[in-house]
Amino acid sequence: MSAQSSDQGSDSDPAQTVIPPGVAPPPGQPPFLPPRLLFWCKVAGIVAALYLFIVGVGGMGHAFKLFGVEFAERVLTATANPFTGLFIGILATSLVQSSSTSTSIIVGMVAGGALSLEGAIFMIMGANIGTSITSVLVSLGHIHRPQELQRAFSAASVHCFFNLTCVAILFPIELATGFLRHTAGLFAGVFEGMGGMRLSNPLKAVTEPAIEAIAWMVQDHAVFMLVATVALTYGMLIVIVKLLRSLVLKKLEYFFDTHLFSTWQRAMLFGLLLTFAVQTSSVPTALVVPLAGAGILRLNQVYPYCLGSNAGTTLTAMLAALATGRETAVIAAFAHLLFNVAGLLLIWPIPAIRNIPLKVAERMGKLAFRHRYVPVLALALIYFIIPTVVLLLLR
User: Fold this and answer.
1) Residue 271 near residue 305 (C-beta atoms within 8 A)
2) The pTM is what?
3) 238 falls within a domain
4) Domain tally for the chain?
């Protein structure tokens, strides 16, 4: 009987054990909290960790800008044929981790006459590929858990390979016909003189004080800033995944399945609206990576969300370009918009083409599960080594 009662006692739920006030809990047993209070503490922890995660992602971009923007500007000033323009766009955007930054540099150079509109369009195509680097970097936070890494890296890869598929289709069309340039020119003529609007950026307003505080602590030293924000990003990623895993994942899956991601239309619209609201695609696409890694979101839910985010980032650029009143800026912004819309219309309605990024991303995830160096190798090859080698060969 004593052995049986001992077994029963060892199987009892620790949360049911009442700990007298002032007495420390036994080792390994968390302090007693009512289940509802514990749940809301975890939710608050997730919100706080998400905020710091976004600060980390934004801080990484700030760090890259400290030593990346000047180099990106020098790279973008190169006289580029379409092929070098494409790879310049990839490399420059990878350096600053923001297609908005590189595109604004490109538009400014077009407006100033330092770059032709034709060259700018191919650079913008490359910028669309380069902007997915943030999601791939975030997926590396799961490198010590192979199953999570498989799901997270697949979610990060699907965005990259969709943009690669868009370029594979639209690059030769643009090269042969100038479709994007001519169509963007027509739209710019229609909207000429309309004026635009500047939107406040709520995400930047909330996170910039924290980013500036980190920059002040490291005295704007690019390397220290990068190390600090990478550590913050990955540290918060671990916290988010652990807290999500400790909650009832089935309930979270049910919420996403029945509300935000219940259909591809809803997922795409949510990605578009969220990106439009925060005025950057890097953060919204990076946010779904830990959710995919934790098993809350499936790859076929992340895919349309990323496509909506692609479209959302062009709307902000369009409003900003209209506000400048410069025709070349408007044409470049319309070319960016048309590239994403045309890619969506050419790829999504045709299952055989639509499934290419999905299948490749699944395959990349399986490779990452077996060989954890694959995401690092893919990151280096796609965003840095291949563009650099091509540019050196085409000099």
Assistant:
1) yes
2) 0.72
3) yes
4) 1
